[in-house]
Amino acid sequence: AATWDPEAVRSYSEALGREFRGKGANSILGPSINVHRVARNGRNFEYLSGEDPYLGAKLVKGYVQGVQSEGVFAVVKHWVFNEQETNRVSESSIVD
Q1: Chain mean position to CA 15
Q2: Which is more confidently placed, 32 or 12?
Q3: 31-56 pLDDT, tens per residue?
Q4: What is the DSSP letter of 46?
Q5: 6-22 helix and 53-68 helix, angle to the nearest 10 degrees
Q6: Run of H or E residues at 74
Q7: 69, 17 in Cβ contact below 8 A?
Q8: CA 70 to CA 83: how far, in whole Å?
Q9: How far apart, in whole angstroms, are the C-alpha atoms of residue 83 and residue 6?
Q10: Which of 12, 26, 70, 94 has fewest C-beta within 10 Å?
């Protein structure tokens, strides 16, 4: 994330929702909200929280509400158990 401003995130996500709706989409696969734990993680650029879980918690609400205010649903993803980069293709995380 490049801001701590939940209103800026809300404004951005409303525009994103309008764009997706205008293209005929009804969903966005995001935001990704995992915390950066592995520097070489290929998905770090997607994570709304960056290295700070407090930041992510403050920003995700506005993102989801902004997207969904435009009639597009947001799918929050990668919030737990997405830490493994070594053997990423063959590794499995079994969680009880």
Answers
A1: 16
A2: 12
A3: 988 887 777 777 777 788 778 888 88
A4: G
A5: 40
A6: strand 73-74
A7: yes
A8: 32
A9: 26
A10: 94
Is there a contact between 47 and 33 (Cβ–Cβ < 8 Å)? yes
Lowest mean pLDDT among 1-10, 14-23, 43-52: 43-52
pLDDT of 19 strictly over 60: yes
Strand blocks (E) in 8-48: 27-28
pLDDT recorded at residue 2: 64
Confirm if 48 and 60 have CB atoms less than 8 A apart. yes
| SS3 category, 54 | helix
| Radius of gyration for the alpha carbons in the chain, expressed in angstroms and rounded | 14
Question: How far is Cα 70 from Cα 52, in angstroms, rounded to an integer?
Answer: 28
The C-alpha angle with vertex 6 and arms to 68 and 8, in degrees rounded to 5, equals 85
Is residue 26 predicted with pLDDT exceeding 90?
A: yes
pLDDT reported for residue 69: 98
